[in-house]
Fold this sequence. Notes:
Layout: H1 2-12, E1 19-20, H2 21-28, H3 34-46, E2 50-54, E3 62-66, H4 68-88, H5 95-112
Antiparallel strand pairs: 1-3, 2-3
Helix pairs in contact: 1-4
Amino acid sequence: MFAVLVYLHDAGKDSNGAVPLAKLYRLMRTRYSQPGLSRLVKRMEARGLLKRAGHPTDGRATILALTNSGNALYKRSVQVYQDALYDFFGSHLTPSEVEDLSNLLTKLIDRVGIFE
């Protein structure tokens, strides 16, 4: 579920918060089958974490967006994740090394195009 929160939050920045379900599937295909992702999306929708709507120009497509509850869970989850990463890695690095690593990872994400 965390990966869905991250992808919807980050990918949605470029599209007014809305992400086509097909795009989410392309991002998540190594983790979930299409039916598995559909079930996860339904569970998250039932919990009020995301909303589903029809695409404005493609009647066959579904658009997903985080709700306020989904954004709140995203923020809490990211904090837990960042704290765990720091405990595991960051506590062994100097502040300068942490900054260097962060810059390198950001560059790698941009080059690989994880959220495209």
